[in-house]
Write a structure and sequence with these properties.
- By secondary structure, the protein is of the alpha/beta class.
- It has 14 helices and 15 strands.
- Helix content is about 35%, strand content about 25%.
- It has 2 domains: about 120 residues, Beta-Lactamase; about 270 residues, 3-Layer(aba) Sandwich (Rossmann fold).
- Helix 9 runs antiparallel to helix 12.
- The longest helix is centred in the first third of the chain and has 14 residues.
- Strands 9-8-10-11-7-12-15 form a 7-stranded mixed beta sheet, with helices on both faces. The protein has a 6-stranded antiparallel beta sheet with strand order 3-2-1-6-5-4.
- It binds zinc ion.
- Zinc ion binds next to loops.
């Protein structure tokens, strides 16, 4: 699916700034998350990432034209033009159709030149409120419960690009009422939130999460947000902060809400410590939405999974309706357009605390959470399909059962 007619743009003899302007405009209009420009043997390949998938847009065959475009991007990002052998990075702020878009530019030296990836951060889209995350009322109330904790650890987990940062920012924004000091440690800082003290790791000069955390704690915070817990020092310091009266939010790699406990254990945090600190965990993922322009209802018998267990989860007034996108010009014949979040929210109750303390496997903790009313991410997905937002196939692709 071509979102921009690159050949025509090049044939028209447009300058590098004009081509770049067209590319950014197209990317913003189609809610692309990244612009990819990769030198291959036959020229500069240009692609956009839309709804999580890479969409090839064409090739600039002339090396001169290609470098002119890449150099224009490097100038925008204040990046050294003479350097082509080392990794480079920069950022720029551009106005597109009266919105501000933050560009994060990264360059990797490659066999045929450089690989340039530009991440687009649309300030208006990504700073969402908790209500805009797309949770059902029940999950939203659970999350509100976690946010109301005076202290403790709340972990958000999910694959890269699943919207973890968006969830953390939404949580922070809700708590940001001026009555409490909020300090973040991020990599990188994606949005400037007024009233929040934001700090950033800088690996190049040896400033990582573990180096910043002790100083952050000396700055008398009530709430701390840690971009990612992935080493022992950060895990221990985060848990210690959580048991000493701070509300700590962090992301972490784990397969599901209950599995975050295993991740903390694998980072050598003692189980009794985790049991005391953990308030809850949110697991999330993104699925593509069925294109509204070409959605067609299908009979329930065509579902590849039984849906009987989902029926009780329907809220009063909700009628099941399975749909599939037949494909049209609006969705470039993919049948999908846009994405939505799927969530699994575990609140740590006394039973779960005891199981953590006893070092029981994640499966036992997951089961206890379900018995206490947790809706699993698969169930959330099936429910979304049952309500005609996505398809069972898409849910199975993202969260295999
Ligand atoms: Zn369509």
């Amino acid at each position: 699916m071509q979102l921009i007619d690159l050949d025509a743009v090049i044939a028209a003899g447009q300058s590098a700034p004009e081509i770049w302007g067209r590319l950014v405009e197209t990317a913003v209009r189609h809610h692309a998350s990244d612009i990819h420009m990769a030198f291959q043997a036959d020229g500069l390949h240009i692609a956009l990432r839309v709804d999580g998938r890479l969409v090839e847009q064409g090739v600039i065959p002339s090396a001169d034209d290609a470098w002119r475009l890449l150099n224009h991007v490097k100038v925008l990002g204040d990046i050294d033009l003479g350097e082509r052998r080392r990794p480079q990075a920069g950022r720029a702020l551009v106005d597109v159709e009266d919105r501000q878009v933050d560009l994060r530019i990264s360059l990797l030296p490659t066999l045929h030149g450089q690989d340039c990836v530009v991440r687009l951060l649309d300030r208006r889209v990504s700073l969402m409120s908790v209500e805009q995350l797309g949770m059902r009322r029940r999950e939203l109330n659970r999350l509100f419960g976690l946010l109301a904790s005076p202290a403790g650890l709340v972990v958000v987990t999910g694959p890269t690009g699943a919207g973890k940062t968006t969830t953390l920012y939404a949580a922070i924004s809700r708590l940001n009422d001026g009555s409490r000091k909020i300090i973040t440690i991020e990599n990188p800082i994606e949005y400037d939130i007024p009233g929040v003290v934001q700090s950033q790791v800088n690996y190049r000069i040896g400033v990582d999460y573990a180096t910043l955390l002790p100083t952050v704690l000396q700055h008398d915070p009530d709430i701390i947000m840690i971009g990612e817990i992935r080493d022992r020092e950060t895990a221990t310091a985060a848990v210690r902060a959580a048991v000493t009266g701070h509300l700590v939010f962090a992301t972490m790699h784990a397969l599901g809400a209950a599995a975050t406990i295993q991740t903390l254990l694998s980072l050598d945090v003692p189980p009794h410590f985790i049991a005391r600190a953990l308030r809850g965990a949110v697991a999330q993922n993104l699925v593509r939405r069925v294109c509204p322009a070409c959605a067609e209802p299908i009979p329930e018998t065509e579902s590849v999974l039984p849906l009987d267990d989902i029926r009780p989860l329907l809220e009063p007034g909700q009628t099941p309706r399975l749909v599939v996108g037949r494909g049209c010009a609006e969705c470039f014949h993919s049948g999908y357009r846009g994405r939505m979040g799927l969530f699994e929210i575990m609140a740590a109750d006394d039973t779960i605390r005891r199981l953590i303390d006893e070092r029981r496997p994640a499966a036992d903790i997951h089961r206890a959470a379900v018995e206490a009313g947790m809706i699993t991410i698969q169930q959330t997905g099936k429910l979304a399909a049952f309500l005609g937002h996505t398809t069972i196939e898409e849910v199975l692709r993202v969260v295999p059962s």
